[in-house]
Amino acid sequence: MHDELKNQVGLLLSKQTRLDGRTNEQYREISVEYGVSKNAEGSARVKIGETEVISGVKMEVMKPYSDRPDAGSLMVNVELNPLSSPEFENGPPSILAIELARITDRCIRESKAIDVKKLCIKSGEKMWMVVIDVCTLNDAGNLFDAVALAAVAAVTDAVFPAFDGEIVDYKNKTSDKLPLSKTPVSTTIYKYGDHLLVDPTSDEEKVYDSRMTVGVLEDGSICSLQKGGDDAIEPDIVVKMIELAKVKSQELRKNL
Amino acid sequence: MTYDKRFDGRAFDEMRPMEAKAGVIKRAAGSGWFKIGNTEAYAAVYGPREMFPRFQQNPEKGVLRCFYSMMPFSSAGDRVRPGPSRRSKEISLVTAKALLPVLDLSEYANSVVDIYIELPQTDAGTRCAGICAASIALADAGIPMKDLVCAISAGKVEDKIILDLNYEEDSHEKGVDIPIAMLHNSKKISLMQLDGEISSEEVAQCIEMVKKASDKLFEVQKEALKGRFRVAGDKNA
After folding, report:
1. What total number of domains does chain A contain?
2. Which DSSP string do the residues of B187-213 spell out, in sequence order?
3. Which overall architecture, per CATH, does domain B18-235 show?
4. B44 vs A40: CB contact, 8 Å cut-off?
């Protein structure tokens, strides 16, 4: 479908460069800005090159789920706004939006970065439901890393709203931060032929063979994985991809 | 009861601080950003492009579609569920009607111009901010236009006629909110809604207030568009 583009990307990679002149393992410029939406309990804007996303945390008091009466809950949702790309459409969440949300959700949830027990207010009666929404503003490639970084950034920015036991007063924020004990960062490694690279542009995203999204914690341990793309990957390459993700995750984390 | 001093200390005919930019969303054909007080709107224009579903095509001229949406975390209260609601659909409709009078879509038979409006942060006046941003975005996209559309709300709290209501005023028990969109040159009105109770004389006063405000809005929009071309001239020439 994109044969010409694929040949071009391959040709450039064999000459150790890319469409925009970067090296394989080079990210575009990354920036993280906090507190970008005043009504959210926490929010952040992440830019990776021209890719831009905004994330916000909203917290509601709800009844705990019957199978986890002593725990609060956490949810990540991703909105691929049609405003951010001609390829996104209105309507129910696309499969890409769902994959992005699920990967990010796992990265934060399975790392146990947030102690959900501390989100329980009264066992079986009241808990905090934390919803992290990530909205895209401009998709210029690599939403996987941008979305996960924005989600974690918004969580680090979030404080509880005032709660008197009955009603949540969203106008008054407390100084209590969300119970975040670790900061997971998600890094996606793309495979093109024999080359591994990071941070693809929209054009590069159209022609990769396979990808691996790796959630990494501060100490280098892995908290989530997702293999994507059409091609299967040799086991030793998988290991290489994970190792590269560990190195690159430090670079991403520095921006938090 | 009298409303002696506004909640945020503004004069009764004073607008909140405004900022605007053009060309903020690179993937779009044109885009605009407009902020008034704590209400912030992005607008992106895609098209003219082929209209789907095809039965909605107009063989005589292009069609304008608007989609207004608040980001889930943008509101002062609970999370806003993503996806269209009755409210957002109605606002999308009146936004399209507010913009249409300045557009010339006669060259775009069977095509559609889509405008997407997203609000990351809200403090009343969202449909007006969305229209101001969309107007910038349409001009930035190079869609033929006769004029810019300027929108702001006027209204009343207790006994005072006021301009540019914030959330506290909008949700006041004795508050009247009248969002108005005005074509800058002709001063014609392309959007007008009202909720609350008010006399016809007072409505006329509100319109006069918006007339004056539209000149200020226009300046902010114009500067945003000029800024866009300065940057383009410097970097991409």
Report:
1. 1
2. --EEEE--BS---HHHHHHHHHHHHHH
3. 2-Layer Sandwich (3.30)
4. no
